[in-house]
């Protein structure tokens, strides 16, 4: 048991470190790219791209079918299912392209923008390569080869940003976003196959497809609803506001969601394959401990990052961005509060996935997406961009307790106590960062002084309180 605990902890730590390196590299690259592109392009271009990504992400079914989750869950039998999953990925990617053609026509009518009839079909060329890359990437995750995954992901982001900046500089406008997706999609597919020693060409296989599709339907419904949740704000805002306003919101959301990519997206990727191993070894106590601790650790780390986005938004936007982007400040601050709660519950699907409870996962996600759409629709119609920002934050504030209770129901002896331990760092962080921010805001207008103090004083205070009370959080 001790060996299992030691090995699993080591795997999680090593995997998390590599994914942290990946995230730092990706976020640094993306942030620099955003600054450069913001100087070259107008908000309307970002608004158009936001609408394109909304349509393509929602209708690109292959990204939602969950083949990676199913392959990881099946673990050692990967080779048995490899050709079948590649066949399914290829078929569904072709179906996705057909659906995108239809969506492009509908979108061009709804948004009165017929350039979508060219841009969306062009983007769809990347879909089969991204779909087929899922299978070799899953193999690397099963083998816990997070170093290889991180190197490929960093390379992908770097190439995307470089090609996009070159395209923008050459005056390609929205095409500077579209064309890199195609080029980098092909390169990423080749890199994942090389790293996992997976053959590029495979035999089409249809036998036993029912065994994959059975779980895949629920994973698809979960992932499809998740995609709607992550994209509906752009689509709904586009119905009530100009492309300029959608572009402003797109920039604000992109900057505010950095904490999710930096903190929340790392641990689940490592935790899922590790928990599957624990389940197979019947290590229930370790399994339960890792789940609860993962929520607490993610909250402890995620809260200060999200709150730093809130407190430092104004000086950072003034220092690095042109005046046309100053409106994003209030939206970044509102959204950053929501990201605190989104980060808290970011691991909620991991226990359900590791237990193979895809049906329950799908049910919760679909109910959540309906709630999200209703909130965003009402507030966007009434308050435009401000309403969309408030709606996103309100949704994560309301849905987080539900997701935590759902995830911890079968693993915690005292679920109320567990949830309170998770919420504690969040509430402490919000109080500390907001208190210092508003005191300083009413004291000085010096942006450098505000940035310096807001970065260090609340972070040091928060760290000292968490360290002092660490035993009460029961992290071991």
Automatic annotation (TrEMBL):
Coiled-coil positions: none
Transmembrane residue ranges: 88-110, 116-136, 148-172, 178-196, 208-230, 250-272, 293-311, 364-380, 386-408, 420-440, 446-469
UniProt subcellular location: Cell membrane
Record membrane topology: Multi-pass membrane protein
Keyword annotations of the record: Cell membrane, Membrane, Transmembrane, Transmembrane helix
Entry keyword annotation includes Transmembrane: yes
InterPro entries: Poly_Biosynth_Transport
Gene Ontology CC annotations of this record: plasma membrane
Family of the protein in this entry: Belongs to the polysaccharide synthase family.
Protein's name in the database: Oligosaccharide flippase family protein
Organism: Flammeovirga yaeyamensis
């Amino acid at each position: 048991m001790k060996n299992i605990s030691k090995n699993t902890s080591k795997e999680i730590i090593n995997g998390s470190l590599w994914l942290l390196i990946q995230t730092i590299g990706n976020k640094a690259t993306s942030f620099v790219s955003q600054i450069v592109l913001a100087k070259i392009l107008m908000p309307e271009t970002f608004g158009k791209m936001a609408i394109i990504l909304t349509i393509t992400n929602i209708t690109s079914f292959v990204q939602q079918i969950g083949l990676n989750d199913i392959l990881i869950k099946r673990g050692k039998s990967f080779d048995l299912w490899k050709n079948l999953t590649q066949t399914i990925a290829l078929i569904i990617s072709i179906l996705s392209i057909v659906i995108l053609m239809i969506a492009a026509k509908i979108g061009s009518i709804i948004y009165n923008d017929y350039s979508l009839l060219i841009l969306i079909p062009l983007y769809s060329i990347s879909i089969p390569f991204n779909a087929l890359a899922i299978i070799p990437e899953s193999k690397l995750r099963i083998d816990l080869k997070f170093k290889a995954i991180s190197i490929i992901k960093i390379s992908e982001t770097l190439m995307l940003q470089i090609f996009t900046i070159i395209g923008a500089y050459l005056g390609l406008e929205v095409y500077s976003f579209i064309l890199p997706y195609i080029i980098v999609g092909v390169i990423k597919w080749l890199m994942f196959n090389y790293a996992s020693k997976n053959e590029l060409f495979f035999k089409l296989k249809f036998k036993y497809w029912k065994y994959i599709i059975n779980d895949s339907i629920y994973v698809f419904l979960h992932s499809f609803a998740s995609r709607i949740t992550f994209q509906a704000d752009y689509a709904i805002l586009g119905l009530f506001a100009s492309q300029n306003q959608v572009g402003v919101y797109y920039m604000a959301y992109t900057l505010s969601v950095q904490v999710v990519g930096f903190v929340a997206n790392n641990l689940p990727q490592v935790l899922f394959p590790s928990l599957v191993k624990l389940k197979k070894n019947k290590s229930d106590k370790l399994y339960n401990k890792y789940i609860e601790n993962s929520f607490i650790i993610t909250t402890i780390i995620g809260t200060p990052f999200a709150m730093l986005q809130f407190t430092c938004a104004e000086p950072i936007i003034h220092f690095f961005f042109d005046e046309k982007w100053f409106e994003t400040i209030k939206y970044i601050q509102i959204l950053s509060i929501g990201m605190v709660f989104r980060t808290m519950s970011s691991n909620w699907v991991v226990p359900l996935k590791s237990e193979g409870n895809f049906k329950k996962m799908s049910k919760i996600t679909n109910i959540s997406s309906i709630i999200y759409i209703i909130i965003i629709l009402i507030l966007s119609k009434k308050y435009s961009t401000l309403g969309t920002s408030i709606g996103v934050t309100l949704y994560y504030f309301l849905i987080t307790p539900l997701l935590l209770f759902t995830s911890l129901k079968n693993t915690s002896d005292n679920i109320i106590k567990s949830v309170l331990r998770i919420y504690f760092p969040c509430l402490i962080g919000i109080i500390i960062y907001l208190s210092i921010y508003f005191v300083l805001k009413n004291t000085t207008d010096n942006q450098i002084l505000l940035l310096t103090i807001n970065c260090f004083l609340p972070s040091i205070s928060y760290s000292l309180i968490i360290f002092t009370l660490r035993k009460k959080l029961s992290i071991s």
